[in-house]
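anyone seen this seq b4? input:
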Amino acid sequence: KTRMEHKVFCTLVITMILGLSLLTQGEDTCNVEPKKRVNCGWPGVTEQECLDKKCCFDTTVPNTPWCFSPEAIETDDVEPGEHCNSNSNST
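predicted toks r here
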């Protein structure tokens, strides 16, 4: 019984860590300087419509897009934009 409780506890801890890391990742990708924001919406777009498009929504900075593309997450093994061409070299 103790061994099973330990497995359940470990599973819960791992699930919580993964959930928190996803939340943190989302916040980091929406931390885009206002002058670097790329519009992802249209005039009158609602927050929910913006989020449904997997975009970021922030109304706190005037004269900038409120619905904008998230910042790209760069990895060591893929250059920015490389993922778009990943199938072009395969035969």
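Helices lie at 2-29, 47-52. The two ends are 54 Å apart (CA to CA). kinda curious what u guys think
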